[in-house]
Amino acid sequence: MAYEFDFKAAQDYDAFFEKGRAKHCLDLEIKLISSLIHPMSGKRLLDIGCGTGLSLEPFVDMGMSLTGIDPSAYMLDKAVGRLGYRVDLHRGTAEDLPFDDNSFDTALLFFSLEFSNRPAKAIEEACRVAREQVVIGVHNRYAPQNMARRVKGFFFPDMYSHAHFFSVWELKTMMTSILGKVPVKWRTTVQFPFLSGSLISKVESLRVVQWSYWGSFIGMRIKPVPKFRTRPLALKIRSRKINEPATGLAIGFRREK
C-alpha cells in the first residue's frame, strides 16, 4: 500500500462514515458489493485492506469464514474493537499477501485499491489467493462527486487526497492486461450522492440505474479462469503381420518337422 493510515486518519475514517449522508452512501456501496459476492454460509472471504472492519461487519452473522488484512496497526485496532475475534485479522500489504494459493473463495478489495502504489500487483495477488472470484469496490474517477473531492483535496487535504480514483474503462483495461479475457461484471451506485432516504435507496437498487458509467462507486466482479497451453501428441501405431507366429513355441515346432 502506498498510503498507510495513522492514528488520526483511523479515527477520522470511522467518524466520517457515521454522518447521515456518508452512512447512506456506505450502505449503498456495501449493498452493491454484497450482491456481487453472493455471500453463503461456509464460504471463505478475504478482505484486503479491511481498515476498521466496516466492510466485513455485514458478513459476520452469515456463517462465513472471514479474514481481514491491512497495513495499518491503528486501523486493525479499530477493527478488533468492532468485530472482536469473529474475524481473523492480519497485518500486511495487498501487494504481498501472506496466504497460500486458492486459500479463499472470494478476495475483496473495498476502498483499498485506491491507496495502492501498485494496483496491478494487488489484483494479481488477489487472484492468486482467490479460488472463485475477486470483487473490487472503488470510487469512480468521472463521477461528479469524486471530481469535487479531488478539487477540494488540493485546498483541504483529507483521506481522499491520497487516493487514486479509477474509471470502469481503466479497471477493465487493467484486468485484461493482467488476466486476459476473463468474465467481468460491473455496476455502479450512489448516482445521487446529495440525496438520501428510502425512495432514493430503491431507485439506486434498480439495475437500469446501476448500469450507469457515472455512479460515484464502482463494484466489479472478476472470475479468474485458469489457462492451459495444450499441444497435440502424435500417436505411434505399430502394425503387426497377421500371419506372424505369436510365440517361439510354434517356430520351434516347425523346425522339428
CATH class: Alpha Beta
Structural class: alpha/beta
Which blocks of ≥5 consecutive residues have pLDDT under 50?
Answer: none
- Round the Cα radius of gyration to an integer and report it: 27 Å
What CATH calls the topology is Rossmann fold
Query: Major sheet: order of its strands?
Result: 3-2-1-4-5-7-6
What percentage of residues falls in helices of 4 or more residues? 25-40%
Mean pLDDT: 87
**SSE series:** HHEEHEEHEHHEHHEH
Q: How many runs of DSSP E, i.e. beta strands?
A: 7
The fraction of residues assigned to DSSP E strands is 15-25%
Q: Tell me the CATH superfamily.
A: Vaccinia Virus protein VP39
- Tally of distinct domains: 1
Describe this structure in words.
The longest helix is centred in the first third of the chain and has 18 residues, at 20-37. The chain is 37% helix and 17% strand. It has one domain (7-256): Vaccinia Virus protein VP39 (Rossmann fold). Strand 4, helix 4 (119-129) and strand 5 form a beta-alpha-beta unit. It contains nine helices and seven strands, in the order ααββαββαβααβααβα. The chain is globular and about 80 Å long. It has a seven-stranded mixed beta sheet with strand order 3-2-1-4-5-7-6, with helices on both faces. By secondary structure, the protein is of the alpha/beta class.
